[in-house]
Design goal:
The chain is an alpha/beta fold and 572 residues long. It contains 19 helices and 24 strands. The chain folds into three domains: 3-178, Rossmann fold, CATH 3.40.50.980; 265-330 and 333-447, Rossmann fold, CATH 3.40.50; 450-563, ANL, C-terminal domain (GMP Synthetase, Chain A, domain 3). Helix content is 38%, strand content 21%. The strands form six sheets. It has an eight-stranded mixed beta sheet. The longest helix is centred in the middle third of the chain and has 20 residues, at 309-328. It is globular, with a radius of gyration of 25 Å.
Length: 572
């Protein structure tokens, strides 16, 4: 039984119970397993009438939701290849993807999204959700077809990489890739949930529900990690809730009370900042207890505890920390974080509150995951051991190489690029890393991002950027530059003060070797955005594009240094 057949079986078993819902301001919009199957069946009949054949690509441009889920599963059930598109991506980039993938059909949520891609749709017919789901559910509930047979090597989805430099590349993932990955995610979640699940009353039948888990999803399903979490939840005794409005994220989390959900580092950084800001504004005894407990906790992490730190930490946990933990979610067992390394201080901050952050490392090419933190043995700053069945080792320049059933078969229409990254059975990730004696990995940076100073010293920029973001109040992004330059400089975005940047640099530089010290900085109040083409859909810096856009500012930094070599930093 492949993953798709297993999902069908579970939806049939939960035919009268909620499986997916959307968080709305007034209430939840829910569907049972049977209702979701009916929506899938309706979509499959539309696909057949549209002439979609096995192996055809069908593009999907829509926000997360019940209809996105039904459309994606319908495409897979017809043995076609789903092409999920990011609705926040620039029209030009979407056009490049559509030209390369050449879909026969493009399904858009509404006319506004359709108008963005219609000029570049090529041969694809464009259909809206209202047309796809026009058939009443009652007409399809009586006839639910099983998924078409699929071989292990058949591709089921074609996900385009975010393209931090250059043109996005299509990554086909096969039945075998997904089957293996879902077995791994199920295993890790079983370990996380081992402490016990929660029972409640089924909202549809009123009967006592079996043990279930609540899963919250706000990251777009067009990304591999989010999609894998979606499929994992559909195959478990879980209710998956989609966030519909990021402006209401805090309220939605409170309403859902999730057991776990997937995050990116920037959200956890904002959550931490928000908590600390509210405590500061509140003041009084709550603030004093929080600060005393926090300082005691972090002193303990570096082996410098003071005699009364146990008492300080105990009081803070009993009063302030427990209140914060309850507000974040009384059922919350873990925050799962991927897409980029998380600052160690932020991971420890949530651990201090009693909420572990489980880090995940992987790429689209590895079916989203290579490593997963073991819930029982989390090491702050590391991303856990390799998942079962996966081999990982270090190659030249500390590059991480991966081999296993999670590795994709090769890029879509790019044989030369495939040959470059798949060699001797190993996938060359382009990421730099290190591994400890217990097999826990740490991600250092990207090989291609390595800065080579004119002195010949090699510097990975990512660790320096992470340190700065954690040290500068209000900083949203940091990008270190210095390739072929005599020293390093940094661009900081956000509402920050020059004196705060200088103070952070002074502290950091005092701990670093001379060639890693940052000698100048430029403050850009406006953050880099997806719309400006300066970050990817997952928030990763497009370094080449940023350097091109800020070429004059960067040149001025080094000109200022040359004119005043003894000056520590130059701000803007």
């Amino acid at each position: 039984m492949n993953f798709l057949e297993a999902i069908w079986k579970r939806l049939e078993e939960w035919s009268d119970r909620h499986v997916v819902q959307e968080a709305r301001p007034e209430d939840f919009d829910c569907v049972s397993g049977g209702e979701l199957l009916a929506l899938i069946q309706s979509t499959r009949e539309f696909l057949r009438h549209a002439g979609v054949k096995p192996g055809d690509r069908v593009a999907l441009l829509a926000p997360n939701g019940i209809r996105w889920t039904a459309a994606d599963l319908a495409i897979l059930a017809e043995a076609a290849i789903a092409l999920p598109l990011n609705s926040r991506q620039a029209a030009g980039e979407l056009g490049v993807i559509l030209k390369d993938a050449d879909p026969v059909l493009l399904i858009a949520a509404d006319q506004a999204l359709a108008s963005i891609v219609s000029p570049n749709a090529g041969r694809a017919r464009v259909a809206l959700f209202d047309e796809v789901f026009a058939a009443p559910a009652a007409e399809t509930e009586a006839k639910i077809d099983p998924p078409r047979p699929l071989a292990a090597s058949d591709p089921v989805t074609l996900i385009y990489t975010s393209g931090t430099s250059g043109v996005p590349k299509g990554v086909p993932l096969t039945v075998a890739n997904v089957d293996h990955m879902l077995s791994c995610t199920r295993g890790r979640l079983d370990e996380l949930m081992r402490a016990g699940k929660h029972k409640g009353v089924d909202a549809t039948t009123g009967a006592l529900a079996e043990e279930t888990e609540n899963v919250f999803q706000y990251l777009p399903c067009c990304f591999a990690g989010s999609w894998i979490l979606l499929l994992t939840a559909l195959g478990r005794d879980a209710v998956l809730t989609f966030s519909i409005d990021l402006q209401r994220l805090s309220e939605e989390m409170s309403d859902v009370e999730p057991d776990y959900f997937l995050n990116v580092p920037i959200l956890l950084e904002r959550m931490r900042s928000g908590i600390e800001k509210k405590i500061e504004e509140r003041g009084g005894i709550a603030r004093r207890l929080f600060v005393a407990g926090r300082d005691a906790y972090f002193r303990g992490q570096i082996g410098k505890s003071e005699p009364l730190d146990g008492l300080r930490l105990g009081l803070a946990n009993f009063t302030v920390f427990s209140t914060i933990r309850k507000r974040l979610g009384p059922r919350l067992k873990a925050l799962i974080c991927g897409s980029a390394p998380l600052a160690v201080d932020t991971q420890l901050f949530f651990a201090m509150l009693g909420i572990p952050v489980l880090q995940v490392y992987g790429l689209t090419e590895t079916t989203a995951i290579c490593t997963l933190d073991d819930p029982a043995r989390v090491v702050a700053g590391r991303v856990g051991p390799a998942i079962p069945g996966i081999e990982m080792k270090l190659g030249d320049d500390k590059e991480i190489l991966v081999r296993g059933p999670n590795v994709f078969p090769g890029y879509w229409n790019r044989p030369e690029e495939t040959t470059r990254v798949l060699r001797d059975g190993w996938f060359h990730t382009g990421d730099q890393g290190e591994v400890d004696a217990n097999g826990n990995w740490r991600i250092i940076g990207r090989v291609k991002n390595l800065l080579i100073l004119s002195s010949g010293h090699n510097v990975p920029p990512e660790p320096l950027e992470d340190m700065l973001l954690g040290a500068i109040p209000g900083a949203q992004q940091a990008m270190v530059v210095g390739n072929d330059r005599p020293s390093l400089a940094v661009i900081i975005t956000g509402d920050v003060k020059s004196e705060d940047v200088q103070a952070a640099l002074d502290r950091m530089n005092s701990l670093l070797p001379h060639f890693e010290r940052i000698r100048a900085f430029h403050i850009r109040p406006e953050p880099f955005t997806i719309e400006s083409g300066l970050i990817t859909g997952m928030g990763k810096l497009r370094r080449d594009a940023i350097q091109a856009a800020l070429r004059d500012e960067i040149d001025r930094l080094y000109a200022t240094q040359a004119a005043a070599p003894d000056r520590k930093s130059a701000g803007a």
